[in-house]
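REQUEST ID: PR-0412
SUBMITTED BY: lab tech R.K.
PRIORITY: routine
TASK: structure prediction, single protein chain
INPUT:
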Amino acid sequence: MKLVTFASFKGGAGKTTALMAVCSSFAEQGKRIALLEADPNAPLQNWRDDARRIGTWNESCTVFLADTPSSLETSVSKAETEGYELALIDTQGGGSELNNSIVANSNIIVVPSAPSPLDIDLAIDTIDYISQLCTAENIWIPVAILLQRIPMTRMTKSMEADLLLLSSLPQYTTQMHERDAFRTIKTRGMLHPLYRKLAANPTHRIGAGHVRKAMDEADSLANELVEVMQEEAADAN
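STATUS: complete
OUTPUT:
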């Protein structure tokens, strides 16, 4: 089972949104997904419960408790035994023993960042923290920046200047734009079932089109993550 981690020191950086988006894409591909719940506020459980109520959940995805190093180890072992192919986990803010355990056991790490000075500074801090941890543990894990909340129109000069700070760091080719489908994903469930539900109603066709664009970005990121993990597996062999 591969562990995909979404990490950032900043709350509200978009970790959970990115996780939910790619979860929908992986589930659509027929993969069984273990969602490891590290946040005591239980955003993944709430997301699942809301989605089930409105019919936008895929039951190939299961939420496991992982809010302590012990529960993380237990849930990962249980998910592996039950045959889950992927585990997605949203880290807590800042450094902690739990986050260290998550990072050290990850197969790939996604560090989301919006094009703002605060988000970018904290994304750089997160990358630096992960690098130091990997050095201390004598391990190497692929980690890259995921740019989110990119404006639909042309970026301002100040945004472009801010993003130059990230130019020396690895970045995913996929970018996720400022879309309503991403802003509301926590209450509307998985993108792909939501799209089908909206597309089936003629009065919601425009909304379905907006969700479709978000789906395409989520699918692109999911495919990119798979490619990186496949390359790492090939190199290991």
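NOTES: The radius of gyration is 17 Å.
REVIEWED BY: pending
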